[in-house]
Amino acid sequence: MTLIDLQRDMRAWLAREDDAAATRLGGEDAAPGLRVHRNNFRASLAACLEESFARTRDWIGDEAFARAVAAHILRVPPSSWTLDAYPRDFPPTLALLYPGDPEVAELAWIDFALGEAFVGPDAAALTAADITEVDWDAAVLHFTPTLDLRDLTTNATAIWSALAEGVEPPGVAYLPEQGAILVWREAETAHFRAIDQIERQALLAARAGLSFADLCAELVDRFGQEDGTSRAGEMLGQWLADRLIVAISHSDDDAPHQ
Description:
Strands 2-3-4 form a three-stranded antiparallel sheet. Strands 1-5 form a two-stranded antiparallel ribbon. It folds into two domains: 3-99, no CATH class; 128-250, no CATH class. It is built from eleven helices and five strands, in the order H-H-H-H-H-H-H-E-E-H-E-E-H-H-H-E. It is an alpha+beta fold. The chain starts with a helix and ends in an 8-residue tail after the last strand.
């Protein structure tokens, strides 16, 4: 047996208890040791998920969380060289396990996204004083690399905040219309904010390179001159206050101004 064959068989045993792989690895003589390796493997994955989804565990309870973790480990074997990536697919597993309770997967996404933002790359944010000379007719905004967005259907943000503060969380409530959530890190703290779909679409467009002038024009087309311009200004002010903007370039420039 070559080394690569040995590694593949060990992976097959650890991930799905493949009997054929176990036989090639030594059969009954190796069974006790293989079970130890399998249990250690699963315990490491479970510990990783428990550490990453504390508020989700608080919400559904220890027993339900343990069942979800066990189901996820059987469903999704690790695919990265680092355990840090393993929690990424847990929210989709929860969405499958709790199809009638969408707040569970949304809480898990908040847990994971905050953790990802916390270890994300550093970037110094601009302030209002840094933008006095900007040519807004050609300005293109550049956002912190820790920014992440997700659609939201429930009051998961309020539930998460209450659980984090150790107070009684509110009951599940569906939003009157689909919303969204924004996650980012500022200095040493990860933050989130519930937003509407208008701001979500604006952030996605601006992050993709749409100039601020064109963004304003789209909002004016949609909401009229006064309301569209006001919305654009309010969003820009909020993004600066949240310290989301790290640079501004111009559409005819090669490099952003920081």
